[in-house]
Design goal:
With 128 residues, the chain is α+β, with helices and mostly antiparallel strands. It has six helices and four strands.
């Protein structure tokens, strides 16, 4: 849940969003490349939701090639897992692996969001 505070001008500012931006900037400096934060929310039951967020660095061209080859030969779940593990930051790796084991659908959901951010959409995949 986001921690929100009011500023003197009456604007709302999210402390969580500011912290996430600061963390992304630190990771960008560490990895010397663009860093992406991918988050999703899944329902736990009728009244609760659980939030997940991971940081990824820009993947190499070889990662895209492996993703497309795996998607065609082994399926999208396996391809998404391999692609995400190729480009997840060290700081998010353990959480991502643990969450994929507990919630297998995260591999597809987060994988789809990541590939969309990187410009690889379903329309692009259909052209291949």
């Amino acid at each position: 849940m986001e921690d929100v505070k009011k500023t003197t001008q009456g604007e709302t500012v999210s402390n969580t969003a500011a912290a996430a931006k600061a963390e992304a900037e630190q990771l960008k400096e560490k990895y010397k490349c663009k860093v992406y934060r991918v988050g999703i929310t899944i329902p736990q039951d009728d009244s609760e939701e659980k939030e997940f967020a991971y940081y990824f660095k820009r993947p190499a061209i070889a990662s895209y090639d492996r993703y497309l080859k795996s998607a065609a030969q082994q399926g999208i779940v396996k391809a998404s897992k391999v692609f995400m593990l190729d480009c997840v930051t060290e700081e998010s790796r353990d959480a991502l692996i643990a969450d994929m084991e507990e919630y297998p659908g995260i591999a597809v959901s987060v994988g789809n969001r990541l590939t969309e951010i990187l410009g690889l959409t379903n329309a692009n995949l259909k052209m291949l």
